[in-house]
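One thing: mind reviewing this one?
=====
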Amino acid sequence: MANSEVLKATETQKQINRHGNLITASSDENLKDIFHHIRTSKSAAVINFGASWCHVCGLILPSFNKLSNKFPKLAFVYADIDECPETTQHIRYTPTFHFFRDGERVDEMFGAGEERLHDRLWMHSDS
């Protein structure tokens, strides 16, 4: 999947999010603000760390976006490691998913798999 196709898929999928619980971190500063909000609001959240050049990331991103509609109480965040290099320097594999509850990271998942992701989201959601 070419970079332009990934970007088009991302924009299309964001448009169909019905609950407004899906956001994209556009910079290091933006991602820091998102982390701060997650910590202080203590809301349940999942962050998908990916990259535009990562084929597997491009495959799971539409599912991630679709699943945001099934779990409206979770905040869904997509962070491209190339757009947020300072804040994502600890990420070694893409995609990597971090799950947050009560302001703390409680789980991590490496790689893709819609069913695996769904199960983790179900486990960490209140819905």
Observations:
- DSSP finds four helices and five strands in the chain.
- Residues 1-15 have pLDDT under 50 and may be disordered.
